[in-house]
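question for whoever is on the cluster today: can someone run the full assembly for these? three chains, 595 residues total. i dont have access anymore since they changed the login thing
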Amino acid sequence: MRYSMRWLAGVVLLVGAPLGAQDARLEQRLDAATAARVGAIVDSARAAGLPTRPLTSKALEGASKGAPGARIIAAVSRLAQGLRSARDVLGPSTDAELDAAASALMLGVRAEEVAAVRGARSGERLTVPLAVLADLVAYGVPSDAATQAVVQLAGRSEDEALLDFRRDVERDIALGAPPAAAAAVRLNSAGRLESDLTTQQIGIPPPKPRKP
Amino acid sequence: MSDDELIERAAEELRRPVRMDPAVDARVMATVHALPRLGAARGGSGWWAWLTQPLTVRFSPLGALGGAMAVLIAAVVLVPRLTPDDGPGGVAMTTALSEAELIAGSDSTHMVQFVFVAPTAHSVSLVGDFNNWEMDATPLSAGPSRSVWTVRLPLANGRHRYAFVVDDSTWAADPSAPPAAGDDFGVPSSVITVAERSS
Amino acid sequence: MTALAAPSDAVLVRRVLAGEVEAYAGLVARYRDRFGRFATQMLGSQEDAEEALQDAFVRGYRALGRCEDPDRFGSWLFRILVNRCRTHGAKRARRERTIVLDEIALKSAGVDGGAEAAAWREAIEWALGKLDEAQREAFLLKYVEDLSYEEMAELTGVGVSALKMRVKRACDRLRVMLREVERV
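^ ran it for u. tokens below:
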């Protein structure tokens, strides 16, 4: 009996410790009212089985950047909703996958587009494809074009290829290419690489300019 | 148009300035930092032998996938310049591509090095999800000329939002890294991804 | 912000040789775009050009103790870059030539001056890509980098007569190809 009670006490202490730590960080960095509201959102997310680290981090980010309490609460609330929506689309997933999917949804990617990415990698890790989707949209690639690219690449390539694709598109955009064109051209290149073109296709004549 | 004019017109087009990816700077400096310092290496046959060794240069951020403690380079270059043709010491800004992404082979943490070039800064800090967004938690260290600032830290699998703070007051996202989604509170942040390898 | 005078190549080289690694960043930033232009036009691919450029900068760092005239660091490094481009050019696979066309299309998508300017640029780059490597190198050094034949000889190790012949043949071929494009 004494052993069981000690064991139970240990379990309670163990479970209690992380909660206490999170509350302490929020209480130290936010005003009382904001900390309480954010804490409630975090508790609610935890009860729903959603990752809470991104929520606490978002609040601490707002605190460091000097944001008013109301804005911090709104940002954390929106992120919690994003995580909830991500879980609705993906089903049981890792925290990293939910975080990446939430980012994509919050950037305007539609639920069915996220679902399409999940479908392209059935039963396999989704963090990188979802992260690449979110990153492409963050760079201005329209969500349908980004989704098409990620779905095609995720279905036939390793994660390394997805990251290479994202890096190439980002570089092209940074150098002045329109985002949609950058994604389309790189996707087209990736597809043509895979089809192993022959030498005969090299001598494609240039488009014909009008006379100066 | 005469033949000479045609060639000259073509040459004129080719002489247009080209803007290369500023990430080149950061990748070069990251590699150079890993080499022995030139001042310490001079003199003796050992130096000559080192200098004439063939060099394998790899710039892929995924080049260290094999190890559990892979070290990658994430780079943000903040180089004030006087005019577009001048080197550091001026006023405008260029940035480099952040390539701090790793596909992990396990759930272990992975060391990531952040490099920030800011010749006129007095201090640079890295602030993000991994250090509770505390301004003083992760200061970068400057080299002797105080131009290149670096820090290494272990990052767990997942997405990590971050930004740099220069001189305790100026926030700087990594413009070449993906911007973080969601409300940035008026101050943009960047995001890197550390993820498990797909099966 | 306050404008500051930029240190010369020689000053930066001496600082690097004294152990101040970070000073090399100044040299890299100074020459990146100009040398990148040559590498891109030689290799036809921005990605290959970046690789050759980075390679050249790193080799330049390692060999900096052998730069006899730090005031002419740029010329000295450019020779390294020309050699790197030759090495990278020899390794290029067939598939990269098809990517060149896409990259041209991509760059043209954002070019000021509209479709006509973009098409002209595309035609020039296509024609340049059709030259053999030696002619392309000679043409770029003469007409784009604006070097004298003596400077080109020192850079490439090729005699002045041979260089003049390469430039002439490059111009002849370019003329034919660009006229063909112009006619349509």
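summary bc i know u wont read the tokens: Chain B touches chain A at residues 1, 19, 21, 23, 61-62, 65, 97, 99, 101, 103, 127, 129, 132-135, 157-159, 161, 171, 176, 178-187, 189, 191, 193, 195-199 (CB under 8 Å). Strands of chain B lie at 71-77, 102-104, 110-117, 124-128, 141-142, 148-155, 158-166, 170-172, 190-196.
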